[in-house]
């Protein structure tokens, strides 16, 4: 009877506090903004709760939405740590002074690409995984058209792929911007724009979300989808008839990152999470959650399905330069003018 | 209610706020009350005495000023000044001194370097309510608002809420259009408004796309026209074509009108892709059997248009059905008696009489299409409209709040332009046919040719709708509908809604439970508030005469006309920092829904009130009842259908809204639609569809339950449905 009443009272109090302005976390809490798939976010948070006893409140939003939220909340931050999502917005947050500098003792265990990115961001963000850029094609559709399988970027400009390529719009998607920056670095500016204009004739749609082309290729809505390779792997493992290509000319990559939000209310716990998320055990969760990126800790097990960097010609992607807002505008404007506005 | 009663109540309220309730917001919930009356739970009087909030002394002084006259039983016009002073003092100090100390540096000579001041709490809320009460009492004492203190208080209170939760956030957000790199730049503002991305006509001469304004206009006009015509076909068949005599016909028509209202965003678009995408079910069938080449026509204008018509045609039907039933047949009979053929009667009598309803149906389709965000997002392809462009200007890879604000202004102009056009077009004529004079005859039957045309359009559309909803129903329970794997599974429902039993108590393990519970809670709290406030405002606007009535009406319409994304971001920007700090709570979701859905309650209430003769109010007043008694005993009971409609509608929209709340949800208070968006992004269509099915079932139960409880009331999305007095 008393338990019942206590339960009722607690329920009532909880209901009321839920409506209270600014009812924030008590001791031992942590608010995480998570920008990978929900499927991966949840086991991560549960594992951290089990490992430390800290209560985690997690919101999953895309990295663009999270960035907008952090920016709007800057005067009175609500989140403590931002985990996951492509590196560009994290670099931007560092540039805009929205995130906190922190040097984790785990830094020494990381791959050089992760530490290099951290240095470029003045230690306001750190890499937790990496994924190479490339494309995937639908084997059923390819066989139907009797086209030779593409292996390079240059193949995508061939006339037989007319209306069969899908790629995101760099205005809205970090994936597409990574592609733009990659091609400029691989080919040089002038030839890159020539290639993009030629490929533009083959593009059936510039999607808004970066993961959409991988999905469209998996269902056959398009023949080729330009995407991060791990997104394509997820589709392939789910049974889609897709083949994954790391282009022969070399390709760029994203570094999924993590940043502590400036003015975090639970700074201590945010740092604990930061250190924990860089451990091999925490990074091993990705593979179990159908995410096949390359973990940033050298000792973390690489999911067997993940596209290995050893087999991919990776370029030396300059994140600081290509991630800056000025460079972004400098590159996207001519793309809109010369490529996007062209005839198809 | 007299001015004195109101003023005394207000004084008591404000005094409680001064002496008892904690002045600042409780950051850690009610556990902080333990420290009362010190530290974070201290009431204002304690803060004044220890000198830490000395700049709030005017609050106490103003209250002391009001007290003596009220104790002696006199309420004068001076109270208005005191009330206004209280509100200004609290808000002025709140904005001037924020979390980082002084915000307004020009006040430094006066205030020095004050300590940081957190957000306003319960104490401040009580003082503010008191201040508004005193202001209203003062106005009533001066003879304004018909010298009725109750009306005065309602107007002042509603006005205050509308300014705080509608007007200020929007002005704050839209003013971003005037700034560039933090500096005032009128030139940039002009350039943004006439930018080629909005107005370019390149698509006429080249292959490049046209400006978003043209795209948006084209889509909205097509949606408006086609859904109105379809709705008209449905209505003619239902009212004049004898369909509703058969049980099946009546049931099918009724299902048509309810389904689109309770459909969560995205799900119709997803179903359309499953059917008509390049690897879609119908596409594959056409290819195998008729050699029609598979194409991607669904992505772009055709797909978005189809999805929007699916949602809008039933609503046009609801409006036109009501209008058609309300047309008295006497004119038609007269025409027939004079020898006109059926077609001629229809063309020259019925059709002109339907004009206002046709205009209303078109306007509704037009405006809803402008505001639609989910369908263009999923199906738009390269076809960009204002709502999606605004979203990506805010949350895309290139963040530009100035551009977003300018585009939002353009969208706002389109919406208000449509309203103005409708008012101008209808304003000149009269369309009354229902008079009090006895039986008016039988409605004319539909001309044969017209009936066949209607049937030929309506029944295929009905089958199409059934197909789309069939896909939604099936999609959640098969392995992967996107790739055509149609074997049955509970897996998707299990991921979202797994329940396990531990020690006899259920444990909700599925990942969707939290968001589902929050959604239902928030919808259940906001629906009665929306309906109540909406009906009150409608009564004030329709039945009371006071200065600023038009302004009040305009503000209620404002939040409806603004894209959800803009509302969402403007809310975080306005309510993330003191004095009003609400982000991260469920309260901000409730407030957002209440003020966003308010227009429905208001419009419905005004339409219903127009049907209730003022003489009833006057009779009540003559017998000595005040405004409060008249409202409670006479008006509200007559308004029951309108209240029910507003209740059901606001519950349903609170469960299906997405663009406004995507930035307002927090870890503790996530909403179903935001969860679904995440699933769609990740490509998990099946889980998204399964969750949508659950939502549809819940909403259906609620809508039918409300109808069962209070009698059938019509549902209309975004407009005042035709409600006859005493219906």
From TrEMBL, chain A:
Signal peptide: 1-26
UniProt KW keywords: Signal
Record carries keyword Cytoplasm: no
This protein's name: ABC transporter substrate-binding protein
Organism per entry: Falsiroseomonas oleicola
TrEMBL record, chain B:
InterPro entries: MetI-like
Ranges of residues in domain ABC transmembrane type-1: 213-422, 516-704
Membrane topology: Multi-pass membrane protein
Pfam families in the cross-refs: BPD_transp_1
Record's keyword terms, sorted: Cell membrane, Membrane, Transmembrane, Transmembrane helix, Transport
TM spans (from-to): 54-71, 78-99, 119-137, 149-171, 217-239, 251-277, 297-320, 349-367, 404-427, 456-478, 520-542, 554-574, 580-598, 642-665, 685-706
Protein localization: Cell membrane
Origin: domain of life: Bacteria
Similarity comment: family membership: Belongs to the binding-protein-dependent transport system permease family.
Protein name: Iron ABC transporter permease
Species: Falsiroseomonas oleicola
């Amino acid at each position: 009877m008393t338990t019942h009443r206590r339960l009722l009272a607690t329920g009532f109090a909880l209901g009321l506090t839920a409506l209270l302005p600014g009812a924030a976390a008590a001791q031992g809490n942590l608010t995480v903004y998570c920008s990978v798939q929900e499927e991966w976010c949840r086991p991560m948070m549960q594992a951290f709760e089990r490992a430390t006893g800290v209560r985690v409140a997690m919101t999953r939003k895309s990295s663009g939405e999270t960035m907008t939220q952090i920016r709007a909340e800057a005067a009175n931050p609500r989140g403590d740590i931002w985990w996951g999502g492509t590196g560009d917005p994290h670099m931007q947050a560092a540039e805009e002074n929205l995130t906190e500098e922190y040097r984790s003792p785990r830094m020494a265990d990381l791959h050089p690409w992760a530490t290099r990115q951290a240095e470029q961001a003045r230690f306001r963000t750190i890499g937790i995984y990496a994924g190479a850029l490339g494309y995937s094609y639908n084997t059923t559709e390819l066989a139907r058209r009797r086209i030779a399988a593409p292996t390079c970027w240059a193949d995508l400009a061939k006339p037989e792929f007319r209306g069969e390529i899908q790629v995101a719009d760099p205005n809205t998607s970090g994936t597409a911007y990574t592609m733009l920056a990659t091609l400029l670095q691989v080919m040089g500016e002038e030839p890159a724009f020539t290639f993009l204009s030629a490929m533009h004739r083959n593009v059936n749609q510039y999607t808004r979300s970066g993961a959409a082309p991988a999905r469209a290729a998996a269902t056959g809505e398009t023949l080729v989808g330009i995407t991060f390779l791990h997104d394509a792997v997820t589709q392939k493992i789910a049974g889609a008839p897709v083949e994954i290509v790391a282009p022969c000319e070399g390709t760029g990559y994203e570094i999924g990152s993590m940043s502590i939000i400036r003015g975090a209310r639970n700074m201590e716990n945010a740092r604990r999470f930061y250190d924990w998320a860089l451990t091999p055990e925490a990074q091993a969760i990705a593979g179990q959650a159908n995410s096949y990126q390359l973990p940033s800790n050298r000792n973390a097990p690489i999911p067997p399905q993940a596209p290995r960097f050893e087999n991919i010609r990776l370029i030396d992607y300059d994140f600081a330069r290509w991630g800056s807002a000025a460079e972004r505008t400098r590159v996207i404007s001519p793309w809109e003018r010369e490529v996007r506005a062209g005839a198809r | 209610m007299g001015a004195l009663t109101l003023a005394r109540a207000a004084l008591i309220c404000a005094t409680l706020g001064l002496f008892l309730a904690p002045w600042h917001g409780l950051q850690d919930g009610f556990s902080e009350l333990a420290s009362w009356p010190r530290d974070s739970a201290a009431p204002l009087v304690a803060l004044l005495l220890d000198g830490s909030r000395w700049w709030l002394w005017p609050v106490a002084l103003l209250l002391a000023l009001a007290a003596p006259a009220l104790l002696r039983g006199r309420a004068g016009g001076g109270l208005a000044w005191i009330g206004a002073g209280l509100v200004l003092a609290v808000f002025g100090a709140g904005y001037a001194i924020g979390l980082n100390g002084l915000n307004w540096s020009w006040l430094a000579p006066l205030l020095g370097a004050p300590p940081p001041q957190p957000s306003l709490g319960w104490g401040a809320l009580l003082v503010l309510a008191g201040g508004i009460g005193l202001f209203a009492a003062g106005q009533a004492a001066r003879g304004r608002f018909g010298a009725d203190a109750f009306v005065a208080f309602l107007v002042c209170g509603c006005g205050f809420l509308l300014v705080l939760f509608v007007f200020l956030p929007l002005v704050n957000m839209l003013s971003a259009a005037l700034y560039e790199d933090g500096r005032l730049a009128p030139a940039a503002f002009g350039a943004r408004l006439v930018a080629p991305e909005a107005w370019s006509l390149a698509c006429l001469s080249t292959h490049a796309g046209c400006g978003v304004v043209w795209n948006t206009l084209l889509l909205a006009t097509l949606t408006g026209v086609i859904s109105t015509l379809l709705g008209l076909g449905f209505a003619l068949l239902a009212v004049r074509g004898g369909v509703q005599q058969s049980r099946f016909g009546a049931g099918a028509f009724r299902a048509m009108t309810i389904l689109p209202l309770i459909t969560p965003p995205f799900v119709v678009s997803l179903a359309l892709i499953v059917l008509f995408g390049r690897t879609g079910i119908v596409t594959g069938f056409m290819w195998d059997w008729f050699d029609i080449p598979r194409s991607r026509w669904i992505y772009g204008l055709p797909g978005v248009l189809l999805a929007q018509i699916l949602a809008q045609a039933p609503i046009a039907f609801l409006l036109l059905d009501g209008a058609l039933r309300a047309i008295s047949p006497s004119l038609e009979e007269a025409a027939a008696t004079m020898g006109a053929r059926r077609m001629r009667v229809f063309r020259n009598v019925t059709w002109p009489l339907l004009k206002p309803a046709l205009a209303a149906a078109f306007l509704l389709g037009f405006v809803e299409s402008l505001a639609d965000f989910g369908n263009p997002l999923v199906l738009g392809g390269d076809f960009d409209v204002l709502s999606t462009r605004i979203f990506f200007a805010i949350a895309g890879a290139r963040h530009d709040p100035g551009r977003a604000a300018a585009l939002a202004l353009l969208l706002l102009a389109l919406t208000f332009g449509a309203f103005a056009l409708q008012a101008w077009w209808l304003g000149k004529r009269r369309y009354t046919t229902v008079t009090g004079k006895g039986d008016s005859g039988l409605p004319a039957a539909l001309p044969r040719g017209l009936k066949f045309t209607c049937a030929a359009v309506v029944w295929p559309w009905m089958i199409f709708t059934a197909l789309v909803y069939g896909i939604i129903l099936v999609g959640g329970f098969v392995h992967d509908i996107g790739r055509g794997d149609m074997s049955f599974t509970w897996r998707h429902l299990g991921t979202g809604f797994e329940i396990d039993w531990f020690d006899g108590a259920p444990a909700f393990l599925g990942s969707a439970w939290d968001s589902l519970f929050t959604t239902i809670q928030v919808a259940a709290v906001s629906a009665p508030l929306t309906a109540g406030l909406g009906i009150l405002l409608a009564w004030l606007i329709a039945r009371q005469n006071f200065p600023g009535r038009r302004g009040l009406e305009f503000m209620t319409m404002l939040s409806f006309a603004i894209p959800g994304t803009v509302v969402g971001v403007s809310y975080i920007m306005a309510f993330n920092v003191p004095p009003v700090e609400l982000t991260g709570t469920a309260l901000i979701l409730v407030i957002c829904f209440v003020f966003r859905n308010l227009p429905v309650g208001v419009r419905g209430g005004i339409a219903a009130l127009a049907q209730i003769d003022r003489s009833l109010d006057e009779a009540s007043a003559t017998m000595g009842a005040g405004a409060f008694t008249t409202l409670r005993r006479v008006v509200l009971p007559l308004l029951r259908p309108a209240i029910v409609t507003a209740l059901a509608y606001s519950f349903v929209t609170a469960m299906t809204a997405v663009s406004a709340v995507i930035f307002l949800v927090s870890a503790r208070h996530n909403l179903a639609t935001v969860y679904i968006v995440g699933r769609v992004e990740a490509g998990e269509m099946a889980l998204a569809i399964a969750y949508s099915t659950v939502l549809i079932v819940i909403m259906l139960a609620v809508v039918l339950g409300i109808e069962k409880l209070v009698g059938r009331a019509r549902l209309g999305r975004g407009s005042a449905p035709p409600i006859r007095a005493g219906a």
